[in-house]
Write a structure and sequence with these properties.
three-stranded antiparallel sheet; flat
Length: 162
């Protein structure tokens, strides 16, 4: 029968066996959003898209506004959601972004009814610039000097001989 005392274990025969002490290890900070954050953000994106598809806003800046919610990012505590929005066919004006910020509390209420969470998240709106960035990169990739770098190099006579 063994008895534990401190860092050593004493067996019936009276000899003490030393155990190594392991210091508690620190956990690495998470590198990206958790699965729950991603799932809840996607549900909020679907809820916002449905709200924008059927809702008529009284705000004159938002009259006949057609918005696409391209992405929603959730904070680790799920209290804040950042919705990236873009207009359909045209860019959103600064007045329309200001209008979205004004109706954010109303949208928070509608989202809380659609998505079951402990607390209703605050929704923040940001313009989505990913499409503009992708178009810029596409134009850069089509430049002749970039295209020549992307073409495979032709084998020279020295390389063919070896």
């Amino acid at each position: 029968m063994a008895r534990r005392t401190g860092n050593a274990t004493t067996s019936d025969k009276g000899r003490a066996e030393k155990r190594e002490y392991k210091a508690p290890t620190k956990r690495a900070a998470p590198q990206g959003p958790s699965q729950r954050q991603l799932r809840v953000a996607e549900e909020v994106r679907h809820a916002l898209a449905a709200i924008f598809a059927r809702e008529e806003f009284r705000d004159p800046d938002l009259a006949d506004l057609h918005v696409t919610v391209t992405e929603v990012r959730a904070s680790p505590d799920l209290q804040h959601m950042t919705a990236f929005v873009s207009g359909l066919g045209k860019e959103l004006t600064p007045a329309q972004h200001a209008g979205l910020k004004r109706v954010a509390p109303y949208l928070r209420t509608l989202v809380s009814r659609a998505v079951r969470l402990r607390t209703a998240p605050e929704v923040h709106f940001q313009p989505d610039t990913a499409l503009d960035y992708a178009m810029h990169i596409s134009k850069v990739m089509q430049r002749p000097e970039v295209q020549q770098d992307l073409q495979p190099k032709a084998a020279t006579k020295d390389e063919d001989a070896s």
